[in-house]
Structure formats: structure tokens, C-alpha cells
Amino acid sequence: MDTLSRYAPQALAVLRIVTALLFIEHGTAKLFGFPVMPSMGGAAPGGEGLPPLILSGGILEAFGGLAVLVGLFTRPVAFILSGEMAVAYWMMHVPKGGFFPLVNGGDSAVLFCFVFLYLVFAGPGAWSVDGLRASRLSH
Questions:
Q1: Residue 78's domain spans which residues?
Q2: Which tens digit of pLDDT belongs to each residue from 91-133?
Q3: Which of 37, 68, 84, 130 falls between 20 and 30 A from 25, CA-CA?
Q4: How many CB atoms within 10 Å of residue 114?
Q5: Domain count across the chain
């Protein structure tokens, strides 16, 4: 095993954790109005009166992101979140500015979609609740 490859589980965990932290922000912005999203004109929706699609997205992002953060049910949750981001891209971004993510503001949706899809296949990496559960089951 080469020198860098032995750190792959830790690098995967860092990718999972940083992605989840960024994703949680999108959910808390929708649900609680924090942090304030410039794309919403500085408005802080805070969950009240949100359309059902945006509300369900905020719930998935906040709580699904939290599950991915700690590495709990990583593969199935990441699968759901990847799908959410694919739907968000095609329903929310493409109609605003066409296919290209740079033009329609969908860069983060595309990246989240494919990072979560990668986690479906790669698993959580190191430092996860899934890993703790697996090690307890094997003993």
C-alpha cells in the first residue's frame, strides 16, 4: 500500500464531514433563516410559510446533512440526498437559466448530487457511527 492510500478512509471522512456541514447550512437557511441567503434577497424565511417543496428540501438538508455528518445510515441517506439535489437542479435551477450550472446558479446542487452519489458507493470512511456499529457487530 502506498503512503497516501493508507489515509483514504480519513480523507473520505473529511470529504463527508465538510460536505455535510456545507449542506446543513442550506437546510438551516431555509428552515430557520440562518445563515441569511443572499440569493433570497437577504430575506430570512425561517421555515414559516415556505412552499412544501422548499420546506421538505430544508428538512432533508438539515437532518439528512446531520446524519451524513456523523456517518449514520450514510449510504441510504446519501442516496436520498443525491436524488434531492438532482431534482433541485432540474426543477429549480434549469428553469432559471438553462442547462449550464454557471449560468443557472446550480453549481452547488450538481456538486452535492455527485458527492452524495459517491458516498453511496464509497461509504462513510473513518470516524462514523456506521463504522462503530459495524465494529460492534463483528465482535
A1: 5-137
A2: 999 999 999 999 999 999 999 999 999 999 999 999 999 999 9
A3: 130
A4: 13
A5: 1
